[in-house]
Amino acid sequence: MLQLFVYGPGLGLPSLDPSCLAAILYCSLAVPKDEFAIYQTANASMSPTQKLPALWDGRAWVGSLKNVLFYLKQKGYNLDNQLDKDALSKINAFSCLLERNAYDLWLFKAYVCEDNYVRVMRPEWSKVLGFPFNYMTPNAFQKHAKERLNLTLGINEDKLSYEASKMPISHRWTNASRQKQALLQAQAFRIRISSLARHLYGSLELLVGDSEFLFGEHPTSLDCLLYAFLSFHTLTENFDQLTLRSTMQSSAPKLFHLLESLKTKWFPSNEQDGLLSSVSIEKQPQNLLAVARVAWNNVSKKIHETKNSFQNVSISSEKQLSLARNGFFILASTFGFVWFVLANGIVVIESEEDVDLDTSRDESSSALDTDVRSREVEQRLDDNTRDEAPPEAEEINASSMSAEDLLFGFEGENEDDDGDWEEEEMDDEEEEDFDEADADIA
Description:
By secondary structure, the protein is mainly alpha-helical. The protein has helices at 18-30, 65-74, 85-112, 114-128, 133-152, 157-160, 172-205, 221-234, 244-251, 253-266, 288-312, 317-343, 352-388, 403-408, 428-441; strands spanning 2-6, 36-40, 54-56, 61-63, 280-283. Helix content is 61%, strand content 5%.
C-alpha cells in the first residue's frame, strides 16, 4: 500500500503547500482509493530530498513532486497514457512553466511580502504544524523563497525593505530619500510581478477550451498542477498585498472560470461528494525521536554551512603570520599569569592526601581545645559551688568541751584547702588572760 506524506490543510485547501496539493490530486485521480493513504505530517526528514511530498511504497522512499509523479507513472498509475505526443509535449512544457513561474508568484505573494507572511502565513503554519516545526518550517520557506527569487527574478530583500538610519537630525533628509527609494523599488517589483502574472495566465488560457478539462473529458497531470499552483493565486482571499485574483479575472477570465469549476467538482461544499471523501487521511503523530532527528539535522546543517564559509575565505600569508603572532602572545600571557598566581600563593593547588591530613589535624586540635575548655568550665563551676555552699552546723557537746574550747572556740576553726588544722599562736597578754580565766574556773 502506498503512503503519501504531505503537509496539513490550510487557507481552505487540502494542503498548505502547492506541491503537496498536486500530489494529493494526482494520487486521488490515478491510484485506486484502497491502494494508498494520505498522512499529514510536519516532518520532512523521511524524504530523501528533505522536501514534501514524500511517497513510501513499503520498500523505498521517493521525495519531491517531480519524482513522485514519475514513480507513479512508472508503476502504471498514469493519467497521461491516452494522450498523443503533441499533448504530452504541451504537458511537459506547461508543467515546467507552472512549477517555475506560478510557484515564484506564490512565493513572492506569501513569503516575500512581509505583511502577508506575518499576518497570514505564519498563523496558518502554526495551525498546521506542531512544536518545534511551527518555528522552523515557516522561516525555512521564507528563506528559500528569498534565495530562489533572488536567482530567478533578481528580487533583493534589501531593495524591498527600508530601515531608518540612526543618524543625527541634520541627516534626516537622507532617511527620507532612502525611504522614497525603497518604496519606488518595491512598487517597481510589484509591477514586474503583475506583468509576469498576466503573461503566465494568458499563456495558460490558450489551453482552455470548451471541454471539462484541458485535454478532453478526462483529467491529466497538467490539470492537477494547474489547480494546485493557481488555486493559491486566486482561491485564497486572505491576502491584502498583491491580489492576483483580480489580475486573473481581468487578463484570463476563461482560466479563472476553469479553476472555479474544478473546485466545485473536486471540493464541493458537501465533503461527502468530494474527491477525498473515500480516501484514508490520517495525521502522523510526532514523537521525541523525530524532534531530536530534526534538531540534529538543523545543527549539522549549520555546522556544514559554517565550515564551508570558512573554507571559502582566503587568508593571505601576512594575515596568517599576524594570527600566529597574536596566538603566541595570548598563549605566553596566559602562561605568565598562571605562573604569577601560583608563585605568589594566590591560588594553592593541594593533593587529596594533603587535604585529608590538614583536615585530620584541624579536627584533632579542635577536639583538644574543646576538652580543655570543658575542664576549665567544670573547675569554675566547682569553685562557685564551694563558695556559695553554707557551712554545716555541728552539734556541740558541752560536757566534753574544755574551757579553752568554750572561750576561744575550736582550735581547728581555720582550715586550709588541704584539710589540716593549724593552731594560732598567742602573745603574752593572751596567755595571762587565759591563765586567770582557768584559775577562776577551777
